[in-house]
Amino acid sequence: MYPDDRRYSKEHEWIKMEGDRGTVGITDFAQRQLGDVVYVELPELGAKFKAGEVFGTIESVKAVSDLFCPVGGEVVEVNQDVVSSPEQVNKDPHGKSWLMVIRVDGATELGKLLTASQYQEFIEKEGSD
Amino acid sequence: MVKASKAKSLLDKLGRLDALRASDTFPRRHIGPTDEDIESMLATLGVSSLDALMDATIPESIRLRTAIDIPEPRGEHELVRDLRRLAERNRVFRSFLGMGYYDCITPPVIQRNVLENPGWYTQYTPYQSEIAQGRLEALLNFQTVVADLTGLPLANASLLDEATAAAEAMSMCLAIHGAKGAQPKTFFVSQDCHPQTIAVLETRARPLGIRVRVGSPQEDAVDDPDLFGVLLQSPSTDGAVRDLSDVIARAHAAGSTVVVATDLLALTLFRPPGEHGADIAVGSTQRFGASLGFGGPHAAFLATREEHARRMPGRMVGVSQDAEGRLAYRLALQTREQHIRRDRATSNICTAQVLPAILASMYAVYHGPEGLITIARRVHGLTATLARGLQRLMLDVGGESFFDTLKVRLPKDRAEEVHGDALHRQMNLRRFADGSVGISLDETTTADDVKALLEVFSGSAPLSFTVEDLADEIDLDPPAALARTSPLLSHPVFQRYHSEHELLRYMSRLQARDLSLTTSMIPLGSCTMKLNATTEMTPITWPGFAALHPFAPSDQAEGYHELFGQLEKWLGEITGLRGVSLQPNAGSQGEYAGLLVIHAYHQSRGQGERDVCLIPVSAHGTNPASAVMAGFRVVPVACDAQGNVDIDDLEAKAAEQHDSLGALMITYPSTHGVFEEGVQRICEIVHAHGGQVYMDGANMNAQVGLTRPSDMGADVCHLNLHKTFCIPHGGGGPGMGPICVAEHLAPFLPGHPLSAVGGEKAIGPVSEAPYGSPSILPISWAYIALMGAKGLTKATQVAILNANYMAKRLERHYRILYTGKNGRVAHEFILDGRPFKKSAGIEVEDIAKRLMDYGFHAPTVSWPVAGTLMIEPTESESKSELDRYCDALISIREEIRDIEEGRADRENNVLKNAPHTAQAVTADVWDRPYSREQAAFPAPWVREHKFWASVARIDNAYGDRHLMCSCPPKEDYKS
């Protein structure tokens, strides 16, 4: 279910590294909890965030949630397709519906994130539906 | 023997006296169950008496054992007579005071068929949109009117008044800047805004750390980089209409957001704020058919550009589609609001002004664009005539363009003579601080009024000209440079209904799409949808209450002041908190006002740093939103497994914040519908750490006569008069949220710059008008006077009985989530719908929609616990109505069992496809795995009277993804 090629945060974001570039998205668990996503607000290019800082918001009909940056870095790309068709987040959260790419400051924070199996265990404890 | 016979004759005499009392007693009309019903319901519960049930439900330590001091109840006829006397003590003068309040003509067809019609005033807020399409359409018309007239595409469906709308706009400006990362904290306010607007802004700004700078936008720098926003007003408070483009461009160049307060009637003739470059427009729709009412209720509006949609405060209607592809309306972008976003909401506003907004929308539908322009040109023309006449009298009316208001510069002693003469003729004119005299005309002004005004200004000298002479010299239209050129209200809805028959049928059609209390009970938890009796409602349109201007001299409002005084005394007695302010216009405003009072109290003791507000996680979302607006930091307190406040956690948090604890906000009985045993202990802990206790009065209907906030230790509480005290919900307002405070807080009750109201160390005004919305206060006054102490207490007992009876009948079918220590619920209770998700794929929302097929409105859905239903039946529902509702819920439980046990499909079933429309069940093709009869007629009573949902299940996500908040283009209408 949760791919091994990336790390996960307890706030339900994932990050997949290629060199110093990390692609960030929300997990399938998060999209199921939210329900039908209607709006995604993403940062401007060049914005810088520390780990744990809010980089945007995501809204469904019933809930609104902050998006937390899993590791620190500078935004180098945002996924405009998701902004214009937010429902894509429900369809392919781990693939086409990535949210942004950041140039990661230092790799040390990555180690604090969960692996796929740890995340799986974490959400089972949190109570999946 | 002698003694006994004396006693007997006394009894006979008493019996005869009783028989001679008024026969139209009210409590038996207000309270649903008869005494026989009550007996049988008590038997169902296995309890001997109402008192025994109360003893088992309410903790002994907080019980009130004496009767509350309320006058003996009156009969309905007697009460109407008493109210008439009060109304007659108000003297209605012709009002030329202006300042945002203008007399107008409520078209009688709208007054009788909307304002005075329970089919329009008894509905709840349109959260169940499938059975609220009528008022959602009316509100969409309202938004279209506002958007068209202001020249800004996105309008909300009403705020509480113009001044608080300006304050909401100020918060929006700050949020817009916060998003840009900019930090300026000064808001520029033009000095020619209404004085009460400036005062409300100053109150609102202080706790948010905003500086308000009042000045002249023409002379002072509006391009100061310290500014995050600018508020202008046009027409200004002294009547001037100016081209604002230049000021707005300068403010924009420096990065400010610009708000313009304006007047919708003027905008039918003058170029709208949107075309001057404004980002936000605010104002009141009062003069679109709502009477002055001594200050309210009136609907205010806020319009803005589309990019600010997610920063918009309050409710907004949007267009979406239903499951059958039909166009359908529902509330849009609800995630902005306090019930979801809590302390990060765009505003604390909850109850708005839906009924006045519907009046305004119908006024625009009835008159259409040509009709509105005709009214506006007439008002402008009469004002021009008056100006010309004043000039002939050699008076200085300034050289600015105007719409309906003139400011006449006079020497002070001359001005006093003018006011004296005007009062003598029963006319009120505005007094400016510099001695100038203000005159505002309106839809009701006649040529004779203009003549009378000119006579007042000419003093003893007779007029050497006639109004007809003057009329030849004036221009009805504004100067070309300021005139409106863009079209307005071009949607067909504003063309179709100009004859009375057509409008009557349009309103009747819309009304038929909405489920109101005229159809069936609406048992929303924490909303207290009780009877709104006809007698209580009757006085609100009497001229003695409806036609007074809020700033009329107070000796003209003696009837109102007597009514306020009595109502304050009674509310003080009911809560045990004797300081009362009637100013807050809704529960949310009451919370905000109460917290400001608490802050002012701490500050007066040199403890202004007490800025932490403890709020249980079970609290309504308005609580944290209000706390943030009042400048508090919110610290949540946990709840235990029984849903009660976790006292250990509270103690720890209070101790942790010992030096900074400002307040606790608590709802009682709890939002979980239980009389918590620990409430006194909770209040003691907060007091011990220097905090004050704010009680949310949303659940007051479970307290009246049996216990009081003061007995538990509360220092402040607000009362939702539209819940416990019978003001109808109006489909989402008007409401009233007066606050009651303990003696030590009374000096801080809110004041007002234009009225002698509030304590001696008053905080600033929280509402535009000194007494909020006075014209609906006779409703609550009447309720208390009709019920008396005994009747009020019995109402509370029966409210608790009704809830416990329903819970008892339902407990074998659904889990009741929380109960008190003796297994009893308070006046409401929670049904758990969560297990059905796993067992049958059924969400609690499916149950809510299926109830529509049975002719019912759902209880509160997913609040305060997600996946549950909260039911509050109120005392006004009869046993047979309670039984019908229980039967519906039990029948739905069986329908769920059919899915659980494989007799019905998990996806394609009566619940998932609910509600079923008439079109769907009568269509030629029916391919569902259940019968049409099962779909639409699932219970016997539905055969006698079927309420059809006018649309099928609405797709909320579709509407939020394709935001559209004004009337859709005509090709989307299927006629």
Write the layout of secondary structure elements.
The complex is a heterodimer of chains A (129) and B (975).
Chain A (H helix, E strand, L loop, with lengths): L6 E2 L4 E6 L2 E6 L1 H7 L2 E5 L6 E2 L4 E7 L3 E5 L4 E6 L1 H5 L3 H4 L8 E5 L11 H11 L3
Antiparallel strand pairs in A: 1-2, 2-3, 3-9, 4-6, 5-8, 6-7, 8-9
Chain B lengths: L1 H19 L6 H4 L4 H11 L4 H8 L18 H14 L4 E3 L11 H8 L2 H4 L11 H18 L3 E2 L6 H18 L6 E5 L4 H11 L5 E5 L11 E7 L6 E2 L3 H9 L3 E7 L9 H4 L3 E5 L15 E5 L12 E6 L4 E5 L6 H4 L12 H39 L8 E2 L2 E4 L3 H13 L2 E5 L5 E4 L6 H12 L8 H5 L21 H4 L3 H13 L21 H4 L5 H4 L11 H18 L3 E3 L5 H18 L7 E5 L5 H8 L3 E5 L9 H10 L4 E7 L11 H10 L3 E5 L12 H4 L3 E3 L20 E3 L35 H34 L4 E2 L12 E4 L2 H6 L3 H10 L6 E2 L6 E4 L7 H22 L17 H5 L9 H5 L3 H5 L9 E2 H6 L14
Parallel strand pairs in B: 1-14, 3-4, 3-5, 5-7, 7-8, 17-18, 17-19, 19-20, 20-21
Antiparallel strand pairs in B: 2-9, 6-12, 8-9, 10-11, 10-27, 13-15, 14-15, 16-22, 21-22, 23-24, 24-26, 25-26
Helix pairs in contact in B: 3-28, 4-28, 5-22, 6-14, 6-19, 8-14, 8-19, 9-10, 14-16, 22-28, 23-24, 25-26, 28-31
Which tags fit this structure?
heterodimer; A: 129 residues; alpha+beta; six-stranded antiparallel beta sheet; three-stranded antiparallel beta sheet; 4 helices; 9 strands; globular; B: 975 residues; alpha/beta; seven-stranded mixed beta sheet; 35 helices
